[in-house]
Design goal:
alpha+beta, five-stranded mixed β-sheet, 15% strand
Length: 329
């Protein structure tokens, strides 16, 4: 059995010692082979120049260090990917509120005006509004779409008052932090690239051809267009994240009418409504067709009348001539 200490000593030996051991093993193997003389001469030649193998050790050490560095780099990248990357210090959230409000029909328009006026007094602005008053055919309805700062959201909803009742309040949140960070990084990188292109064009000690200057100018224009598009995108993200979107829909309170429900009464009422609509449609159709009927009478009936009267005159003349011929006979 082999002992542990010689193995440790063998692997901890200096590079020169390792080379000597390798030469000795090669000499022993060469002595056992048929070409012992040639092996011995080769071993002697290697032993005669032991200093030549000494520079190999630093080169191997450098190679091992390089390989260790290459193996350690992916591990470091993996550690950064798992938790080493620092999260953004500020979060950008796009928050939306959709609120359904019920209020008495008589107060719906006034409440709509009150909420709209309150938004204009706060850090808020109205993106869209709609008001439809009550008619015999439809109920009243109103809508407001607003952008309000998070600090003033409570004050805006407080303007609803005690007479209104919130039926539904839906809130959605979308995290746009990494999108904002990405757009800002694009703006920064493209701005630095644009500035370097401008400095390149302003260099006076370098002579460039007209074709090179045109190529730099085209690239500069393209980079500036990309910067403008990124700035627009950043402005839209700022609008979505700086203020919360609030959509309020107002509807009148539903009144329950007491009484006995009669299916036959509903059927006769619907039948009468259908008959009334049909008669109205018939009258409208006749009124719209009357001018065309008069034109048709002038174009068709008058020539037809003249043709009939002409045929009748010819028939009367033939009958008169026939009577005269009979009298002569």
């Amino acid at each position: 059995m082999f002992s542990r200490s010689p193995s440790v000593g063998l692997f901890n030996a200096r590079p020169g010692g390792l080379a000597a051991v390798a030469i000795a093993v090669a000499a022993l193997l060469a002595g056992c082979s048929p070409d012992a003389g040639q092996g011995a001469s080769t071993a002697e030649a290697h032993m005669a120049t032991p200093a030549a193998s000494a520079p190999v050790a630093p080169m191997a050490a450098r190679s091992m260090a390089k390989m260790a560095t290459m193996e350690a780099a992916p591990a470091a990248d993996m550690a950064m990917g798992q938790g080493g990357a620092a999260a953004p210090s500020e979060r950008f959230l796009a928050i939306s509120h959709r609120i359904q409000v019920e209020t008495p029909a008589a107060d719906l328009a006034a409440l709509w005006e009150e909420v709209k006026a309150r938004c204009e007094r706060l850090d808020c602005y109205v993106e869209g509004s709609q008001l439809r008053r009550e008619t015999p055919q439809s109920a009243a309805e109103a809508m407001l779409a607003m952008r309000v700062s998070p600090q003033d959201f409570a004050a805006l909803t407080a303007s609803l008052g005690a007479g209104a009742r919130v039926l539904n309040h839906q809130t959605t949140t979308e995290d746009k932090t990494y999108e904002v960070v990405d757009v800002e990084a694009q703006i920064k990188n493209r701005t630095e690239y644009r500035d370097s292109l401008r400095a390149l064009m302003l260099e006076k000690n370098v002579k460039r051809s007209l074709q090179d200057l045109m190529a730099i100018r085209d690239t500069l224009s393209q980079v500036q267009a990309e910067i403008d598009a990124s700035n627009t995108h950043r402005a839209l993200l700022q609008r979505d994240t700086a203020k919360q979107f609030v959509q309020m829909r107002f509807q009148p309170t539903r009144a329950i009418v007491s009484g006995t429900y009669s299916p036959w009464q509903q059927t006769w009422q619907r039948s009468w409504d259908g008959l009334t609509r049909s008669v109205q449609s018939l009258i409208l159709t006749a009124a719209q067709s009357l001018p065309w009927l008069l034109a048709l009478a002038l174009v068709v009936l008058l020539p037809l009348r003249f043709a009939i009267r002409r045929c009748m005159r010819r028939s009367a003349a033939r009958a008169q001539r026939a009577n005269q011929a009979e009298k002569q006979d």
